Amino acid sequence: MMHSKQTILDRKLFTQALRHMGEEDLLYLNRMVVERLNLLAQARSTVELAQFAEGDRVQFTATDGSVKHGVVLRLNKKTASVLTSEGQNWKVSPGLLRKAVAG
């Protein structure tokens, strides 16, 4: 497995090659890059979700800036379903969740 800081190609040579590619090759390369980025995001999400289990008490900051507290009901493919203390159901990205401090 390669460390994320390592590179397998010379960036200057790659940049030169890009400048000579036609539209068809650029579109193909774009599809390949998007697929790879999606795969990396899915892997990161899976690792983040693995930190939680159904029944965990969690907190997150809602889009309006308020802090919500709740319980993980279900772990989905990309999100966790959380029932807040106000009785609302939220689907939250695992990167936004924090385990609630017992108190």
Descriptors for this entry?
103 residues; alpha+beta; 36% helix; elongated
Structure summarized in a few sentences:
The protein is an alpha+beta fold and 103 residues long. The protein has helices at residues 11-20, 23-49; strands at 57-61, 67-75, 80-84, 89-92, 98-99. Helices cover 36% and strands 24% of the residues.
What does it look like?
With 103 residues, the protein is α+β, with helices and mostly antiparallel strands. It has 2 domains: 39 residues; 43 residues, SH3 type barrels (Roll). 36% of the residues lie in helices and 24% in strands. The chain contains 2 helices and 5 strands, in the order ααβββββ. The longest helix is centred in the middle third of the chain and has 27 residues. The radius of gyration is 20 Å and the shape is elongated. The N and C termini lie far apart (42 Å). The model has no long low-confidence stretch (mean pLDDT 90).
Question: In CATH terms, what is the architecture of the largest domain?
Answer: Roll
Strand order of the largest sheet: 4-3-2-1-5
> Per DSSP, what share of the residues sits in E-state strands of 2 or more residues?
15-25%
Low-pLDDT ranges: none
Secondary-structure content class: alpha+beta
Largest sheet: 5 strands, antiparallel
CATH class of the largest domain: Mainly Beta
CATH fold annotation of the largest domain: SH3 type barrels
String of helices and strands: HHEEEEE
**Could you tell me the mean pLDDT?**
90
**What is Rg?**
20 Å
* Span of the ends, CA to CA: 42 Å
- Helix percent reads 25-40%
Total E-strand runs? 5
SS summary, helix count: 2
Shape annotation: elongated
Number of domains: 2
